[in-house]
Design a protein that fits this description.
The complex is a heterotrimer of chains A (400), B (364) and C (40). By secondary structure, chain B is mainly alpha-helical. Chain B has one domain: Amino acid/polyamine transporter I (Up-down Bundle). Chain B is built from twelve helices and no strands. With 40 residues, chain C is mainly α. Classes of the chains: A alpha/beta (400), B mainly alpha (364), C mainly alpha (40). Chain B: Belongs to the amino acid-polyamine-organocation (APC) superfamily. Spore germination protein (SGP) (TC 2.A.3.9) family.
Chain lengths: 400, 364, 40
Amino acid sequence: MQVKPVILSMMFFLILPLLTGCWSKVEVNDVAIVTAVGLDKTDKGKIQLSLELAVPRLLGVTNQSGGEKLEAKAGWILSAEGETILEAYRYIQQKVQRKIVFYHSKVIVIGEKLARSGVLPVLDFFERYKQSQIKSHILFAKGKAVDILEYNPVFEKLSSEIMREEAKSKKNVSVRLLQFMDMLVSPGNTPMAARVQLIPAQTDKNSGESDPGISKISSLSVRGAAVFHKDQLIGWLNETETRGAMWLKNRMKDAVTTAEVPVEKGGGRISAQVHTASTKYHTLAGTKGITITVDPYAEVSIFENTSKLDMSSPKDLEYVRTLVTEDVKARIELVCREAQLGYKKDILGFGHIIYRQHPKQWNKSYAKEWEKLFPEVPINITPHITITQVGLTNKSIELE
Amino acid sequence: MVRVSGYQLFATTVLFQLGTTVIFGFASPAGRDAWIAMLLSAFIGMFMILGYIALMNMMPGLSLVEWFPKQFGPWLGIPIAWFYPLLFIYDAGRGISDLKELVPLTLLPGTPTWVILGSMMLVIMYFLSSGVEVIFRFAGLLFPIIFFLFVAEILLLLGSRNVHFDNLQPLLGEGWGRVWKTVWPFGILQTFGETIEFAMLWSFLRKPGQLAGINIIAVLVTGVTIAVFDMLAIMVLGEGVFQRNIYPLLVLLRQLSISDFLDNLDALGVMYFMTTIFLKISLHLMTAVLAIQKLTSAKSLRLPILIVTVTTLWIGSNMARNVTDHIFVGTRILPYNLWIPLFIVIPAILLMVAWIRKKAGTAL
Amino acid sequence: MSEYLWPWQSHVFILHPWAISIMFIVLSLLLSMISWFKKK
């Protein structure tokens, strides 16, 4: 069939507008971008949802010192209460002219009260809703989440940026919602996540040069961890204990361990930085009961030495290695003791290790009894540390 | 005469078998052992396909719908033969229904359904009118592109720090039970049982001797590809999310973020899903149309194509009220009611009859 | 979308799984008549 050129060109021009993809367009001007989500439990038992919305207009403005009269923050915090998250979200949407989108939300902060009462009910929304946020980092606030979101940072424009940078840093546990949910659901495992809190600025070096005219009373810190029993928050780990936990959970990435050299050997301290670390587990689960052996493997470099030991002497280096090994062992043991004697609950997810290595026995007997068994389980820690580098010098400088 | 090369048949078969599993994942009820279920399904499915090929070889030159009248006679054989185009149309409708759920969810939330599905069907109608050879050439062309995308996705995922091999353990910790439940009947039938459609097309192969070899390699490729994706999904998402999610491979893509900048790549996944499902629906319909042509001795394909396309659009649009019903039917009921009889029972009977006939024939 | 009840619809299929099989049998017999007619 011969098609006339006229018909062809007509079809061509008819199709053109369809190809521009304008149908469901979403312009940046029409949306309110959420950068952080905060969840709290109110006294009446409802959920308080707080959203930190980015105000693009103000994000480009450079922070001029002294010009703190600019009260408008780049992050706008909106809050509403509801029986469920979706309900609260609807209330907040009513307060904003633009459509709220969650696509760029990177952080979820959950307040302490809500966490203690059980975190499971609020997690579904983040997984199920179309703009799914399971990639967000999940942080638990000591206190109320909304206070954390309201924090007005110095270097960054948005508190969510700070939280995100801190959460991603390798110095602390960083858990994304996906991982959190996985830990919650896996047999024998318990979730753990980072803790965020407001602390006085004086003790924290992050406040930088503060203009005497401003009173920056607090700073945001993402350090330490939140520990759980099932889905309820039961306590916090401080920084040292968190380090031990990171070893156990195989999340140790970047850390500095400092070992003290005993006075007989000359005193002083040696600091080593961890390069690579992985933790393996050996478990025995038989008629004689369960034993867990933790084998952390790590490669470290010595970067500071204030002792009299000589880094170029294999004998001394070997001795340093044992010191570091002892240090790592002590850290891990610290948190294990905390779990077994302090909380008396498996907050570190040892059950999951047993499940992985002895699935049938776990399912048959241990699963139900784990809470009773755990505090008595012997946990042996045997670190395998290798010192790979010693920095640029061998002996430390000393006076003659 | 249409002549199809071995590579083209291979490419078409693989893309057809990949079909909807590139988004839905495979065997998610099996949890972290889903990839094992996939490999098993592929293995068993291969034998099933070899069975179809055996039938092909016993009745050389004949296509699927011609087998039944030949062995069972026209009064029984023809009604049985008609089941197949009807089933293929229904399966095509299911594919349309899948699209109806997925596209508004991910790509085009505001666009009315009839626009999305209507445009799709128009393209398919045009595609079918161009002839069988075009379909094979299209698949042959697209196959390297799709696989390049797959490899890129796999490499990106492996490169990100989100892959945890531990998630695959404990291997078969929950036993073989849940693996077998997904393999039979759904696992085998969905991807490999549907390959019986190709029996309408195998007579086009240039070198018929290659038929078995090509299909074996195709099954291997499909099986390994899907198993690898299942494995990746489990390693990145963990068993819980993998099972709970309706579109796990889409969520998997969302996890990718290239230097924190290129994000939310699931739209890309939807696009290659659209390619595979476009091809699958087209193949469902092409084989239905060819079957109708053979059964009605029609001269041109125009009318069957039109009828079939419109019918599919209609039933696909009103088939499912929601995703839950749709998936429930597809995994729990459909395999038992339609697929087992049509993909396994009837061909098995056919095989026996044909074999007995052959033996009796040579004895005479 | 239409609220008719057809055997291929999911909600019908769930309640009456055999309905679509019956429909197939009926349809195939009807369509076979075309084939038989054409063969004559």
